[in-house]
Specification:
With about 240 residues, the protein is α/β, with parallel strands linked by helices. It is built from ten helices and eleven strands. Strand 10 (about 205-210) and strand 11 (about 210-215) form a beta hairpin. Bound molecules: iron/sulfur cluster (2 copies).
């Protein structure tokens, strides 16, 4: 059975809630996998030391994980998160950036320190800036259909279906609405389909005269507009003059 871990870094847990919202599909997923690590979906603890009255309890990331779903961006001021992320990479065959905070930095990109409840935490990065990520599933939170399709494709080893997620992990960890404008619209590749506007969860994109307009004050760097744009794959190659 496929050994799956869910790792929670800096995020609101919305991605996991989106998965849990699948209702009838969640038991099917849990039956198809061996969930070996999750501090949110499971409550397993290992006692590592015991002194007089004090018990130290640690949740241990296991060896030989097949798929690690990492939710949240990583706070580079937090040694524990950085160490956990590196341990996840070392012990996992496949690492998936699950949701926009992990994939592109998302709304955590706007952190600057001094903000409650963690004022000392100043800098958050998409996890691909710290470790090699195999697949990225953007969305704030990702739509449940997308999560389910990805999970079942991963369980079946459907690499064709998973290819765009691999490309996104490799090429788009910094993307946002402005990046889509630069890569597609500024290169005259936009066909005015409106997919980006429909996908944007903050309504930062509106269609005028058949073309998208961006309000970057509303953009949360989720990257889903780039992921959904049917012309983005063309943009990587069209003006790539060797
Ligand atoms: S424009 Fe919208 S969809 Fe695109 S990155 Fe910004 S918030 Fe996300
Ligand atoms: S999804 Fe891409 S092609 Fe479609 S309107 Fe947006 S930028 Fe243009």
């Amino acid at each position: 059975m496929v050994r799956v871990a869910h790792v929670h870094l800096s995020a609101c847990t919305g991605c996991l809630i989106s998965l849990a919202d699948s209702y009838e599909k969640l038991p099917e997923i849990l039956e198809a996998i061996d969930l070996v690590y999750s501090i949110t979906l499971a409550d397993e603890k290992t006692v590592v030391t015991e002194t007089d009255e004090k018990i130290s309890i640690e949740r241990v990331y296991p060896d030989n994980v097949d798929i690690a779903l990492v939710e949240g961006s990583v706070c580079i001021d937090d040694e524990h998160s950085m160490a956990l992320l590196k341990e996840v990479r070392e012990k996992s065959n496949i690492v998936v950036a699950f949701g926009s905070c992990a994939a592109t930095g998302g709304i955590n990109s706007f952190s600057r320190g001094g903000q409650d409840p963690q004022p000392t935490h100043t800098a958050f990065l998409p996890i691909g800036k710290v470790i090699k990520v195999d697949f990225a599933l953007p969305g704030c939170a990702p739509a449940i259909e997308g999560i389910l399709n990805f999970i079942f494709a991963a369980l079946e080893g459907d690499t064709d279906y998973m290819l765009p997620y691999a490309v996104f992990a490799e090429e788009f960890m910094d993307t946002n609405g402005l990046d889509l404008a630069r890569r597609v619209i500024s290169q005259s590749l936009c066909m005015g389909c409106g997919t980006c506007a429909a996908a944007c969860q903050t309504r930062a994109i509106k269609m005028y005269d058949g073309k998208p307009n961006f309000d970057m004050d509303l953009c949360i760097n989720c990257g889903i507009c780039t992921f959904q744009c049917p012309r983005i794959s063309v943009s990587s190659t069209v003006f790539n003059i060797e």
